[in-house]
Amino acid sequence: MKQKIIPDIKKLVTQEIEYATGFTIENHETYKKIKVTAPWPDAKNAFTYILYPKGMEKPTLDIPNETLKFIQIPVEKTVASSTTDIPILEYLELENKLVGFPHTDYISSEKTRTLIDSGHIAELGNNGHLNTELTIELAPELIIGYSAAGDIKTYDLLEKTGIPVVMNGSWMEQHPLGRAEWIKFVAAFFNKKIEADSIFKNIEKEYKEATTLAKNTTTSPTVFSGDMFKDVWYVPGGNSYFAQLLKDANTDYLWVDNQKTGSIALSFESVLEKAKKADIWIGSGNSKSLASLKEKNNRFTFFDAFKNKNVYSYAIKVGEKGGLLYYELGSIRPDFILKDIIQIAHPELLTDYKPYFFEKLN
């Protein structure tokens, strides 16, 4: 019978995670302990991963009240499940480690698309129901999973075959830099800590400098956001990820006082009452022109932002197969989103800047 080893807290170094709240990393002498506490809304249980070097004996740990998953590192072959993983792998120069992805048409990056076209990255169906047979055949050493509501039956099935699955909950973060900081989470499985720290510091620097620049303006244009789905208009809550970006861009977001971190479901009439005279409409859904926006709902023309052609959308920038660049790259580069909004709201500040995501509808 193996002797249980109690982690030596004297040899523990907690890695600095400044903005992200959904995971922690502890660097012990012979292993890393990563804990994901918020993989999806209202998750009841956390996930604890023990990372240890290949060629070394698996640690025997006694950590009360935690179910441990052991993973050997560095990982050489991985399957990812969210497009937000793609730029992280590319920034860490790990795109060649990716061997499978569900619904590859969603991927916009030209670099990774080249790997898809060459057959290096296999098509694995859709995220909720990975093609288990093909995934097992690929023999990945790690699956970077994602779930919007906790349905992880497919992942559980794959884990029973010996393939480790880790849950990336970056989309749950409310601060833009919190989402970007999940690059440190992915990097840990590939021994890329130094590279991830450097990349994140640069993103943080660019974001903070843009925020400071926006604070120097004396005007804060009024802004509303969101779009209608059937009879409901969904706008970002006042404590949401997008509301934080609007705040840091020094705009007057009309629902900033709302305390919700997700979306607010409203009627058209209530949005019109509050936002009819707003200066700018940022994030107008999937419409790619004012004409198509009007065709979708003629009442959109009642807003001053529509009348004055101050409507901006991220739906115009798409990849070769139609995937939205905003959903792929925006998570790791909130500084790009912030600068886009600053140029829209304060065009005098970034005169030579070329937007990454948002374009004005014509």
Structure description:
With 362 residues, this protein is an alpha/beta fold. Helices cover 30% and strands 19% of the residues. It is built from 13 helices and 20 strands. It has helices spanning 85-91, 110-117, 132-138, 153-159, 176-180, 183-188, 193-215, 241-248, 268-275, 290-296, 304-307, 325-329, 334-345, and strands spanning 13-14, 23-27, 32-36, 47-53, 68-73, 78-80, 98-101, 122-123, 125-126, 129-130, 142-145, 165-167, 222-224, 227-229, 232-236, 252-253, 263-266, 280-282, 311-313, 359-360. The strands form five sheets. A five-stranded mixed beta sheet has the order 1-2-3-4-5, with no helix packed on it. A five-stranded parallel beta sheet has the order 8-7-6-11-12, with helices on both faces. Strands 16-13-18-19-20 form a five-stranded mixed beta sheet. Helix 7 packs parallel to helix 13. The longest helix has 23 residues, at 193-215.
Write the layout of secondary structure elements.
Blueprint (H helix, E strand, L loop, with lengths): L12 E2 L8 E5 L4 E5 L10 E7 L14 E6 L4 E3 L4 H7 L6 E4 L8 H8 L4 E2 L1 E2 L2 E2 L1 H7 L3 E4 L7 H7 L5 E3 L8 H5 L2 H6 L4 H23 L6 E3 L2 E3 L2 E5 L4 H8 L3 E2 L9 E4 L1 H8 L4 E3 L7 H7 L7 H4 L3 E3 L11 H5 L4 H12 L13 E2 L2
Parallel strand pairs: 4-5, 6-7, 6-11, 7-8, 11-12, 13-16, 13-18, 18-19
Antiparallel strand pairs: 1-2, 2-3, 3-4, 9-10, 14-15, 15-17, 19-20
Helix pairs in contact: 7-13
